[in-house]
Amino acid sequence: MFYIGVDLGGTGIKAGVVDEKGEIRAKASCPTGVERGYGPVIADMAKLCLEALEKSGHTLDEVKSIGIGIPGIQDPATGLVPFCTNLGWHQVPLVSEMRKYIDKPVYVGNDATVAGLAEAVAGVSAGVGTSVFVTLGTGVGGGIIIDGKPYSGPHGVASEIGHMMTVVGGELCTCGNRGCWERYASATAIIREGRKFAEAHPDCAIAKAVGGDLDKIEAKTVIDLAKAGDPDAAMLFDNYVTHLCVGLVNLINLYDPEIIALGGGVSHAGQFLLDAVNAKLPQMVFYKTMPYARVELARLGNDAGIIGAAMLGAN
Amino acid sequence: MFYIGVDLGGTGIKAGVVDEKGEIRAKASCPTGVERGYGPVIADMAKLCLEALEKSGHTLDEVKSIGIGIPGIQDPATGLVPFCTNLGWHQVPLVSEMRKYIDKPVYVGNDATVAGLAEAVAGVSAGVGTSVFVTLGTGVGGGIIIDGKPYSGPHGVASEIGHMMTVVGGELCTCGNRGCWERYASATAIIREGRKFAEAHPDCAIAKAVGGDLDKIEAKTVIDLAKAGDPDAAMLFDNYVTHLCVGLVNLINLYDPEIIALGGGVSHAGQFLLDAVNAKLPQMVFYKTMPYARVELARLGNDAGIIGAAMLGAN
C-alpha cells in the first residue's frame, strides 16, 4: 500500500506518494495562492495528489489514505481547522472538503508534528519510540512522538514547544506572552541579537560582513562568523546555545525522549551547533548520571513535510 | 482482585490494600528509619503489605501485584533505583529485594507520578485520559498520565516538571540550574518571598502575624493574609500565581492535558487559589479560542500515594 502526503504551506503546496518505509515515489507541487480562499486551495491539493499518483505509476486502489500537514492544528472535537494565520483560514472543513475530490481517509496534522513523525519513520529518529523534533526557524515548532505515534493532546493543542516560557518577563512574543522559548531559540533570535550588537558596535565583524547594512544580517551571518572564530559572534552564538539548551532540558525533564532532532534553518549550522549543545547540556540536565536524550540533526529536510503527512495514515 | 500499594517516604512507610476502583480496604504504616539502610526498610515494607492484607480480610491469592511509590525514580534499563536523596539510597535493587518476601509482580513509580495515577483512577481526573498532577509543596513534582497510563519516559526521567526552567538566570535551584519553576511555584517560594518582604517591611501584616519571628512565616501565613485582603500578602500571592500559571501554561502547551490537578500544601488554599489561577490563565494560553485543560484541586490527599502505587499494577 501507499500513502499520499500533502505539505500545505503559506507559499506552496507539495504532494507526494510515499511507500510504507517512508520513501517518496513521486512528487508534485504548485503555489498556494492563499488569496483565493480555502476552496480552490483544497481543490489544488486534491489535483496534486492525483498528479503525484499518476507520476508514481500507481492507482488510487493502492492508496490507503491521504495525510495533510498544515501550519496550524485541527480541532479534534469539530474536525475543523480553527485557524491558520499563514493561510487566512478560519473554521475550515479541510477533511470533508478534501473528500469531495478523493474518497479516501484524510488525516490532518500540524506541520512540525508531521515533520517529527517523518524523522521517526524514515529519518534520524527511526527505530526510536519516543522522540521530539524541534524546528529552529522563524519560530520554534515541535513534533512530539510518543511510542511511535504523533502526540497532539486531547484538544490538539500540544507540542507548542516554542511558546513554552523560559524567560518570564523577557522578550514580547507574537502570542502575547513574554519570554517564550522561540524568542530566544529561533533563527529570528540570532538575527535580532546580531543586529542589536552590530548597531551598538558598528565596527564589529558582523556589521562588516553585511557592508554596514544591518537589515542584511541573517542567522547564518552570525553563525558563520562564530564558526570562523570571531569573538563577538561566538559570544552571541554561545548565548543562543544557552537559551536553546534551556528549552531542550525542559523537553528532557518533561518528555524524556530518546532523541531530540533539530531541524529548521539554524540546524544547518550542523556539527558546530551539535558540539555547542553537547558541551552545555550535560551540566543542565536534572539526572546527571542517568541516560537521557541524544540531540541529533534532523535528516529529511524539506521532504519531511510530505513523508510525515503521508505517515499519519500509517499509524 | 486486589492491589497492594506502598507509599515510601523519608519519614514513614504506608501500605494499603486497594480494590479495582482505587478504594483502600485496609492500611498499615510504620516509620521509615532510613538510617538502617535499604535492607531493613524493604523488609518492613513487605511486613506492612502482609499486615494490611490481613486487616483487609483477604489473602495473597487475591492480590495481583504490589506497587511502590518512591521519592525518586527507577531506571528502566537496570531495574534499580539509582538514587533517592531522602532515603540515602544508591543503586538499590528494590524489586528483587521486595520479591524475596512476597512472590508477586512488583512495580515501582515516582511518588508524584503515582499520585497523578491515583487522581486519574479515583480522584479529580477520573474518567479522563490525559491529565497532569502537580504537587505544590516543598518542591514541585508532577505526575503525567497519558491515555490513562503513567508516563515516565523511556529513561524514566520524565515528569520532572518542577525543574522546567521558567526564569533563565533566576533563583538558584537545588539541581544546580537557575530559574527552575519550583523556585517560584512551591510553598518554599511563598515562604521565601514572604520572609524577604517582612524583613524589608518589619511593620507589615506578615511580620505581625508571626510576632516578628520571621522564621515562623509559612506559606499559609501569606495565603491566609492574602485571603483576608492584606494588600502586601495579596501582592505576593498574585506574583506567586503568575509564576504558577507560567508553568501551567507550559504544561498545557506541551502536554495539552484535559485536567491539571493541583495538590500539595499550597493547594490547601483551595478555591481562592483556583480563582486566582483561572483569572490569569486564559490570557496566557496560546490557543485562546480553543478548549484547554481545566485546573482543579486534587482530591485524594495523603491516600493518593497508596492508591496510585497500587494502581501501577492495574495498568
Q: What are its keywords?
A:
37% helix, 12 strands, 315 residues, alpha/beta, homodimer
Structure description:
The structure is a homodimer. With about 325 residues, chain A is of the alpha/beta class. The first copy, chain A, is about 35% helix and about 20% strand. In chain A, the strands form three sheets. Chain A has a five-stranded mixed sheet. In chain A, strands 10-9-8-11-12 form a five-stranded mixed sheet, sandwiched between helices. A two-stranded antiparallel ribbon of chain A has the order 5-6. In chain A, a hairpin with a 5-residue loop joins strand 2 and strand 3. The model of chain A has no long low-confidence stretch (mean pLDDT about 95). The interface between A and B is large, with 54 and 53 residues.
Distance between the termini of chain A: 13 Å
Radius of gyration of chain A: 20 Å
Poorly predicted runs of 5 or more residues of chain A: none
Number of helices of chain A: 10
**What is the oligomeric state here?**
homodimer
Describe the largest sheet of chain A: 5 strands, mixed
Strand content of chain A: 15-25%
How does the helix and strand content of chain A classify structurally?
alpha/beta
- Mean pLDDT reading of chain A: 96
